Amino acid sequence: MTKKYQSEQLMICHQDAEALYRIGAISEAEMQEFDRECLVPDPKAPRQAPARQAPASAYAGPRKG
To answer: What pTM does this model have?
Structure first.
């Protein structure tokens, strides 16, 4: 299946990320993030819920004292 990219610039970023993934420099989860950001979504693919992220207030920083 041919990949469709959102732009030429994102195609270059995605191809670089694929090279990094192949040599183990980035994880599968990171590669999937590049897929979501760079590729045009396949209308036939089932939709997935977005990944959950912790709220910004979840990390209070280092404790003092």
So the answer is: 0.62
